[in-house]
Amino acid sequence: MKVALFIPCFVNDLYPHVAMATAELLEGYGVDVHYPLAQSCCGQPLSNNGDSQGACDAARRFTGIFKDYDYVVSPSGSCTAHVKHHYPWYIADNADYQALQPRIYEIVEFLQDVLKVEKLPKPVYFPHTVSIHQSCHGLRELGHAAPSELMIPYHSRLERILQLVDGIEIKQPERRDECCGFGGTFSVDEPEVSVAMGEDRVAQHEATGAQYIVGADPSCLMHMGGIIRHRCRPIRPLHIVEILTGRGGAA
Amino acid sequence: MKNDNINHAAAAAAFLQDREQARWHDSAIWWVRQKRDMQAKQLPEWEQLRALAQQIKAHTLSRLDDYLQQFQANAEKNGVTVHWAADADEHNRIVHGILAAEGVKKLVKSKSMLTEECGLNPYLEQHGIEVIDTDLGERIVQLRQEPPSHIVMPAIHLKKEQISELFHRELGTEAGNNDPTYLTHAARANLREHFLTADAGLTGVNFAIAETGGVVVCTNEGNADLGTALPPIHIASMGLEKIIPRLEHLGVFTRLLARSAIGSPITTYTSHFHRARPGGQMHIVIVDNGRSDILGNDDFYQSLRCIRCGACMNTCPVYRRSTGHSYSYIIPGPIGSTLGPSRDIKKHGSMAFACTTCGSCSNVCPVKINLHEQLVLQRKRAFDAGTLKPAKKMGLLAMRFLTQHPSLMDAGGKVMRKVVPIVPDSLTRHSAWSRPGRALPEMPEQSFKEMWQARQEKKS
């Protein structure tokens, strides 16, 4: 099984350890992991700001780079949601994309739906309390959990996979799936609203008594992390793959 | 009327200056979202109802012309006069014409976002007709001479202390008496006078039923009923998308409307109007005002399914932290942020960007409008219409170029990682990222690409 890592541009530059943990986690399950070096940005910032030409070019480029792999896996719910659900706005007729689209997965989805994992590659003991940050695109576009607005049976992918970790205590913040306020370029277009939302979100995570905010979207964690650092708070954001590989405590 | 020049980001930043008031606003409206959840949870068929409502509206919009004609024919059979208005001006002229013909001096109005959209109040006042809004929230914002900040709860941005001050000034209530019951009684006594002395009543329309030619108005205060029962003339103004085909469809919507809007099983009054009372007149004004253009647009026609419940506002984390007054269009929040830009992208373009694309609005919407996707599609129109600030446009074009040239993007990333740690804090703390209280991320030594390449070399 040839799996290509799709590492979002900002993760490549700012969170290389998250990308490496993703690779190691997959390798731990015996997956043949590749990282196509020609990849750049998926084009979500262009799409979200109305640059359809740029977004379309980015979608074509992405398809060309990844089309020959068995699967594409990414540690970002938002970027995965963009390539999986919004590329059809631009290249719905592209045959290569049509063939690739069902093989694109966010990492937790890939572990649960393709590898169907029931244990971690090596046992992880993480004797801490974590508060789950359910990011919006993972939630409402990829269906990672039951959104609080919909009257459907409760489920949560993140909670389910964290059950495989020993010693962990899992909490949900009040308003369990409210947006953290990052929103891509929204964070700098409307910085005051963005930070106000993030401050509220961090406070709700803190109120659970957790030492860590755990999520599957590095962008939300970056935004909340910036607020936490500015306010010198003790709580720490962690990407879920950092816990699943047993690197979490060191971060 | 609303100021078209409001920029959401700037207005929201100003609102957030008073963080305590902003927190209160957020919690007050979040409470309504919670009440909606509690009500929705009690109906095992909630998601089926949403799907059904979506389908009924989608079907109706697919043959709107037929249903509108059927509605008109049936209304006229009931003796109602039906008028058609292509735009806001025509609507206002028609209403004024009806009132002027009967020498009306005072009009009592129940809640109608359409008349806000058309700017009816200032138009009639210029023509010497006194207009009294009779919904309590609408009356409050009318006395304050400001637009409603929410389509269902027009005065939700105000605390009871502010209303007490306003009523003391305008209605002569006791200074400092903030008791909501006392204040409501004072408003009630004042409004009762107006109901008794009005010459005509105007209502909005929640649903217009093609099969019967009747209109349905949902209120909680009974003001629409008093406003139509006392004066001899009833004018009902409706957008042309308010049609539903049959009476049997109404229950689907009334079950969704109040639960979605305010977390009640139903509105206190669900009033059906079919004909004028003996000796009276009933008029229905059907207004287009840009709706046909939206209907003809593949990306946005779904927004015409809206039943104006306001649930998208209550759930919107940006709306709750910025108030309706931060949006340039008369309808704020997610639904307003597609309807406003549909009307005029140059004036209302900033609204489409007042959104993190979290998608909560699309999930609470009782008629399943793809609201957050529409906002992204409106940004495409904003980009194409050239409404983006030059600096932002340049940034996007640079990003577009770098996306196609990864080696340059990698080089840029490397420069960022080396330079940011040595730049003094004084230079970055005024950036949009850092200004409101958010530190820059720590810069790692190596990018993942560099780490991966080193790892592959070691392996081989």
Task: Tell me about this structure.
Chain A has helices at 9-14, 16-28, 44-47, 52-66, 77-86, 88-91, 95-100, 107-114, 136-141, 157-162, 186-189, 191-206, 218-230, 240-244, and strands spanning 2-5, 32-34, 71-74, 104-106, 129-133, 169-171, 212-215, 236-239. Chain A is α/β, with parallel strands linked by helices. In chain A, the strands form 2 sheets. A 4-stranded parallel β-sheet of chain A has the order 2-1-3-4, with helices on both faces. Chain A has a 4-stranded parallel β-sheet with strand order 6-5-7-8. With 460 residues, chain B is an alpha/beta fold. Among the domains of chain B are: 43-289, NagB/RpiA/CoA transferase-like (Rossmann fold, 3-Layer(aba) Sandwich); 398-459, no CATH class. In chain B, strand 5 and strand 6 (214-219) form a beta hairpin. Chains A and B meet through helix 1, helix 2, helix 3, helix 4 and helix 9 of A and helix 1, helix 2, helix 18, helix 19 and helix 20 of B. Chain A: Residues 3-84, 130-224 form the Cysteine-rich domain. Chain A: This is (Fe-S)-binding protein. Chain A: Pfam families: CCG. Chain B: It holds the Pfam family Fer4_8.
Q: According to CATH, what is the class of the largest domain in chain A?
A: Alpha Beta
What's the CATH class label of the domain at 43-289 in chain B?
Alpha Beta
**What would you call the structural class of chain B?**
alpha/beta
Helical residue percent band of chain B: 40-55%
CATH topology of the largest domain in chain A: Rossmann fold
Number of helices in the DSSP assignment of chain A: 14
**How helical, in percent, are the residues of chain A?**
40-55%
pLDDT under 50 segments of chain B (min length 5)?
none
Structurally, how many domains make up the residues of chain A? 2
The CATH architecture name of the largest domain in chain A reads 3-Layer(aba) Sandwich
